[in-house]
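Worked example 3 (structure in, sequence out).
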């Protein structure tokens, strides 16, 4: 995997974590039996790559943590709280049953007809979420006008 991280302004203002995701994906291309493979297929290119940028992607030049990072952390905390609440609500047998039946329905064609149907369902969940999900997710989103000049 060849990674050109591009301009840091783009990553901080639009796609926080792109550098991290690209790096973690490239690391998985190495030996599967090692936690930190040294034979990964990761190559850096471009004028915007540096050790400092890789290690400190969440901070602005003034050392303040950027807004996107704060919102992402808040969203992750929300998801972890929901996962904990789910584990407390359902016992292991019930969770196993939910996973088994949902997966069985999905692969048998009862939930998802094909790739197009899946793509449409994902798009609808993002663009037309139910009210509970919409209320929860909006607390963690950057306003649409945040990135406009």
């Amino acid at each position: 995997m060849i990674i050109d991280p591009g301009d840091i302004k783009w990553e901080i203002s639009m796609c926080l974590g792109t550098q991290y995701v690209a790096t973690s994906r490239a690391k998985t291309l190495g030996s599967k039996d090692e936690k930190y493979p040294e034979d990964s297929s990761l190559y850096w290119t471009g004028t915007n790559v540096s050790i400092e940028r890789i290690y400190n992607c969440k901070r602005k030049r003034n050392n303040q943590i950027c807004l996107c990072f704060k919102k992402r952390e808040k969203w992750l905390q929300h998801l972890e709280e929901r996962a904990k609440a789910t584990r407390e609500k359902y016992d292991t047998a019930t969770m196993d049953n939910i996973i088994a039946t949902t997966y069985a329905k999905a692969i048998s064609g009862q939930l998802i007809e094909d790739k197009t149907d899946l793509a449409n369902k994902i798009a609808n969940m993002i663009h037309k979420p139910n009210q509970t999900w919409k209320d929860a997710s909006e607390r963690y989103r950057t306003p649409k006008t945040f990135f406009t000049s």
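Notes: Residues 67-147 form one domain. DSSP finds seven helices and two strands in the chain.
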